[in-house]
Amino acid sequence: MPSEEDPKLFERTTVKGLRAVLSPRKSFDFSCTACGKCCRGPGSVYFTPDDLKAVEEHLGLDAAGKADLRGRLIQAEENGYYVHRAGGACRLLGSDNRCTVYPVRPLQCRTYPFWPSSFVSRTDLEALAEECPGTLKGKGRRYSLLSTARRVNKTRRQFLEAQKEPDEHFMI
Predict the structure, then answer these.
(1) 138 Rama sector, left if φ>0, alpha if ψ -120 to 50, beta otherwise
(2) What are the E-state strand segments in 7-160?
């Protein structure tokens, strides 16, 4: 995965760029296998105060439940986002590998694997395919290069919109 300071993370994803990263493929294929691997292991989940409020409402939590959830989910704050570092599985992942808040999951979770960091280089894409059994296996939905670029660029725009300090931008 590229470093958070890699300027390519903030550049628009183009069909030409994807062609180089995906070559010799002419499309990107992905189908969620519900394996839960994207919700486990190292890494962080970034979510906004609005995301947290939606999760709390979805779970129907009272004041004590909200305080407990916040204590379990928030390990840091970064430029308008709360940061969840589980060090294992996400605290919202059920024992059946399903997200317990799927209808209101944060942007980062909703947009996986269409993150800017997944398409910077062939190495990044290969790492994604190694991690995610539903990626680049010739099965599932085929996304044209244009459709993939649009999804990645939309993710980038939405992720940056919630960040408060433009000089401190970071990317998923």
Answers:
(1) left
(2) 27-30, 45-47, 76-78, 81-84, 141-144
Residue 28 backbone phi and psi in degrees, to 5: -115, 125
Strand 141-144 and strand 76-78: pairing? unpaired
For 7-43, the pLDDT digits (tens) are 667 788 999 999 999 999 999 999 999 999 999 988 8
Predicted TM-score (pTM) of the model is 0.89
3-state secondary structure of 42: coil
Q: Positive or negative, the Cα torsion across 153, 2, 172, 33? A: positive
Displacement of CA 11 from its chain's centroid (Å):
17
* Domain boundaries along the sequence of the chain: 7-32+110-158, 45-109
